[in-house]
Specification:
247 residues, 0% strand, globular
Length: 247
């Protein structure tokens, strides 16, 4: 834990180092610690109020990308996809509360865990926050990740709208948030390829399919936490603007 604390402190002092070396350093750590232990430790450390919202957001973004793309994290991804026991649920909740520092990463985590009802709710909450250029950039990166191998299973689930109705609603809502451009065209093309299946189902039913293990997770509490963290970030952003002297 002391080693991880030192690493985070170094990255916090030198943000450019996080961007340049963060991914490689954190991946190297996974050779000495199990991914679950490593991420639980980082999640706990990032709760420290001495770290600003912008740094926490960048750190979460880096951790999230490693989780999605590194082969060393495959067992952890499988655990998150199947929240069958209490320990796996605790891991999801622990990561979620820290991932709230970055909205797109939070959404990604929910989609990995197949918590589609909550993912749809999150996208609806996105519309209530100020849509900034940075936020849209994060969403565009997320859309590119949807085309990666890690989300092959999710793309196949688009063929079963009766089982995953809120997956459709989540992705179509995300499409409505995006300005027309590369990311919009990518997501639109993916959804358009299965649009007939989704439209037929969604036109005939507004019911959601609940997943038993998800009922053990208090998503209302997680939503409140997400909104609280995002509100704090917005306050920090406005506060920083107040100190910018117009040229």
């Amino acid at each position: 834990l002391k080693l991880m604390e030192c690493i985070i402190s170094i990255f916090n002092r030198d943000k450019s180092l996080l961007e340049k070396k963060g991914t490689s350093v954190l991946r190297q750590l996974s050779l000495f610690f199990t991914p679950t232990k490593l991420y639980n430790a980082f999640a706990n450390l990032l709760d420290n109020p001495e770290y600003g919202g912008e740094f926490c957001s960048k750190m979460v973004q880096t951790l999230n990308l490693i989780l999605l793309t590194s082969i060393e994290f495959e067992p952890m991804r499988k655990s998150l996809k199947c929240l069958l026991d209490v320990e796996q649920q605790k891991l999801f909740i622990r990561l979620y509360k820290t991932w709230c520092h970055n909205a797109a990463s939070t959404l990604t985590l929910c989609l990995i865990a197949e918590c589609y009802d909550h993912a749809y709710e999150l996208v609806r909450k996105f519309t209530e926050k100020e849509v900034t250029v940075d936020f849209l950039s994060e969403i565009e990166k997320f859309v590119s990740l949807l085309e990666s191998p890690i989300f092959t299973g999710l793309r196949m689930q688009l063929l079963a709208p009766t089982k995953y109705p809120n997956l459709y609603k989540c992705l179509y809502s995300l499409l409505m948030l995006l300005p027309q451009g590369t990311a919009y065209n990518t997501l639109h093309g993916r959804l358009n390829s299965v649009s007939f299946l989704g439209q037929v189902y969604l036109a005939s039913s507004d019911k959601t399919v609940s997943v038993p293990y998800q009922s053990a997770i208090n998503f209302a509490e997680l939503t409140d936490h997400f909104l609280k963290v995002q509100s704090k970030h917005q306050h920090e952003l406005y506060h920083s603007y107040a100190y910018v002297t117009p040229s």
